[in-house]
Amino acid sequence: MKFSKIPAATITRLSLYSRVLEELLSSHINIIASDKLAQKCGVNPAQVRKDLAYFGEFGVRGVGYFVKELLFEIKKILGLNRSWRMALIGIGNLGLALIAHENFPKQGYEFVAVFDIDPKKVGRRLPSGQIIHGIDELDEVIKEKKIEIGVIATPASQAQATARRLIDAGVKAILNFAPIQIQIPEGFIVENVDFTVKLDNLAYHLTMEAV
Amino acid sequence: MKFSKIPAATITRLSLYSRVLEELLSSHINIIASDKLAQKCGVNPAQVRKDLAYFGEFGVRGVGYFVKELLFEIKKILGLNRSWRMALIGIGNLGLALIAHENFPKQGYEFVAVFDIDPKKVGRRLPSGQIIHGIDELDEVIKEKKIEIGVIATPASQAQATARRLIDAGVKAILNFAPIQIQIPEGFIVENVDFTVKLDNLAYHLTMEAV
DNA sequence: TGGTGTGAACAACTTCACAGCG
DNA sequence: CGCTGTGAAGTTGTTCACACCA
């Protein structure tokens, strides 16, 4: 259980496993073997077993894994056995889509505060209940509402400055939707959700194929 | 220039490089060294040089890379020296945000057809001009409009079936926003944009840190 | 018997370090 | 002299193959 040497990819896969297990659970399937789980996630069966083995011995030899139990363990590992308080910065089309995204609250991710720079938007109340704060209130609100994760949905031009403010306000983790590589100090985490990079990958492969 | 052994991560980084180079170009910076470019992308300088070396010798020893020239080459490699015809399936909040996303057309990615399953939406015209087609028209429209990339923004429950229809209609590449691992046959490509997986990564690291 | 858990083999990717060239 | 291009070394992640155990 040496955390430091766990591959980042393992964590990503745990997330996939948990999703599949949720589905199995609601289909009333109680036991699953690494082969089946692997297939559903598009990975190698040995990979599944190794990923899980980093954190303990959750399976039963000759049988497989108990779905409910394994799901519980994975959620505990990922920190999904609790809720997470998030702030959203940038209430454009994407921001609104994120607020409306039903998977977030289902997994315990809650937007407890939202911000925008546009004075015309500040003060308005969203259908989901939150009042839009101005960026100048960011520090105060983040601290007051004990926000742990910042979600940046601003234009690229404002993303870096926004990240700075979030970090200064005490946020440790950022989910960045802006198409820019954000620079952050040691000890903080950024995950990027980058549509165009993904599209560029597709374009590349389509281009290669045609050659 | 053996395409088969180019790391997937290299392609992703090329996409980042192109973005940074665009920015440099509009700042009228003509030459950049691998150190600087690497720093802006958060990678190792040797990595930058190696990535580029897969595709040719674009630099000048003792000098660096000419921004304009390098950008041109990278865009050619990625297939960004042309436009790409895309279809969007699922006109919910996320779908609308994608349509409004200004970076897509800027990079040559165009939504030339949009689809939804909801009869109340079918036939309506979007502000961006497209008329919403029903899913039953998918095969016909995809072929007629020569669509190359399918973008899935449906609920998870419909994503697999949608992928199937796209592939049957001749689409080779899919950008999937639904939180599910889509199964596709050999020779097709899927890229997943997965918000919750990214959030789970953040939650994991925050949880670890606290231990 | 059948599927997990795991060391050992393998494969992939990254970084180093320096030769080579403008 | 300075920065690229690149073999070689190092690191990280994946797959194999089988001992082990319910």
Automatic annotation (TrEMBL), chains A, B:
<feature type="binding site">
    <location>
        <begin position="90"/>
        <end position="95"/>
    </location>
    <ligand>
        <name>NAD(+)</name>
    </ligand>
</feature>
<dbReference type="Pfam" id="PF02629">
    <property type="entry name" value="CoA_binding"/>
</dbReference>
<keyword id="KW-0963">Cytoplasm</keyword>
<dbReference type="GO" id="GO:0045892">
    <property type="term" value="P:negative regulation of DNA-templated transcription"/>
</dbReference>
<dbReference type="InterPro" id="IPR036291">
    <property type="entry name" value="NAD(P)-bd_dom_sf"/>
</dbReference>
<feature type="domain" description="CoA-binding">
    <location>
        <begin position="79"/>
        <end position="181"/>
    </location>
</feature>
<keyword id="KW-0238">DNA-binding</keyword>
<comment type="similarity">
    <text>Belongs to the transcriptional regulatory Rex family.</text>
</comment>
<dbReference type="Pfam" id="PF06971">
    <property type="entry name" value="Put_DNA-bind_N"/>
</dbReference>
<keyword id="KW-0805">Transcription regulation</keyword>
<dbReference type="GO" id="GO:0051775">
    <property type="term" value="P:response to redox state"/>
</dbReference>
<dbReference type="InterPro" id="IPR022876">
    <property type="entry name" value="Tscrpt_rep_Rex"/>
</dbReference>
<dbReference type="InterPro" id="IPR036390">
    <property type="entry name" value="WH_DNA-bd_sf"/>
</dbReference>
<keyword id="KW-0804">Transcription</keyword>
<dbReference type="GO" id="GO:0003677">
    <property type="term" value="F:DNA binding"/>
</dbReference>
<keyword id="KW-0678">Repressor</keyword>
<dbReference type="GO" id="GO:0005737">
    <property type="term" value="C:cytoplasm"/>
</dbReference>
<dbReference type="InterPro" id="IPR009718">
    <property type="entry name" value="Rex_DNA-bd_C_dom"/>
</dbReference>
<dbReference type="InterPro" id="IPR003781">
    <property type="entry name" value="CoA-bd"/>
</dbReference>
<keyword id="KW-0520">NAD</keyword>
<comment type="subunit">
    <text>Homodimer.</text>
</comment>
<protein>
    <recommendedName>
        <fullName>Redox-sensing transcriptional repressor Rex</fullName>
    </recommendedName>
</protein>
<comment type="function">
    <text>Modulates transcription in response to changes in cellular NADH/NAD(+) redox state.</text>
</comment>
<feature type="DNA-binding region" description="H-T-H motif">
    <location>
        <begin position="16"/>
        <end position="55"/>
    </location>
</feature>
<dbReference type="InterPro" id="IPR036388">
    <property type="entry name" value="WH-like_DNA-bd_sf"/>
</dbReference>
<dbReference type="GO" id="GO:0003700">
    <property type="term" value="F:DNA-binding transcription factor activity"/>
</dbReference>
<dbReference type="InterPro" id="IPR058236">
    <property type="entry name" value="Rex_actinobacterial-type"/>
</dbReference>
